[in-house]
Write a structure and sequence with these properties.
This protein is α+β, with helices and mostly antiparallel strands and about 160 residues long. It has one domain (about 5-135): Alpha-Beta Plaits, CATH 3.30.70. About 40% of the residues lie in helices and about 20% in strands. The protein has eight helices and four strands. It has a four-stranded antiparallel sheet. The protein is globular and about 45 Å long. The model has no long low-confidence stretch (mean pLDDT about 95).
């Protein structure tokens, strides 16, 4: 089983709705380890870097307008298959289509104002983490309860 890292962004709507604590709590209760955390404001330049594959698409101006509209919280997580685990926890992109129990299913009702971003592959996670976190900002640490929460062949 692959130990992975993933970038998670609590988007401006999650910050405005004061859901950051709830979202962090869900991530931690799932067993993922927080290795980086910061609040920042996405600039148009940062948005273009993050969403480089979408910049020429018709919907991009609305996406940039939204992601730069207020502060976000960037979170780096680590755990077995962290990308897959977070994608399942987030739910479908459109909150109206997301299953109850997922973040978007419980709190979202929009396709664009969908509360949270998560890397969609380990490769994307590596690229995105480097955009939001400088060398030395991610912490390597081992929870003392690892033996109680994860089998040794899963770490």
């Amino acid at each position: 089983m692959a130990m992975e890292r993933s970038l998670i962004l609590f988007k401006p709507d999650a910050v405005q709705r004061k859901l950051c604590g709830e979202l962090l709590s869900r991530i931690e209760r799932k067993g993922l380890k927080l290795i980086g955390l910061k609040m920042l404001r996405v600039t148009p330049e940062l948005s273009q870097q993050h969403y480089a594959e979408h910049v020429t698409k018709k919907f991009y101006p609305l996406l940039e307008s939204f992601i730069t509209s207020g502060p976000i919280v960037a979170v780096a997580v680590e755990g077995p298959e962290a990308v897959k685990v977070m994608r399942a926890m987030m739910g479908s992109t459109n909150g109206r289509d997301s299953a109850p129990g997922t973040i978007r299913g419980d709190f979202g009702s929009s396709r664009q104002m969908n509360l949270i971003h998560g890397s969609d592959s380990p490769e994307a996670a590596q690229r995105e983490l480097a955009i939001y976190f400088q060398p030395g900002e991610l912490q390597d640490w081992s929870p003392v309860l690892d033996d109680q929460t994860t089998a040794s062949d899963e770490r």
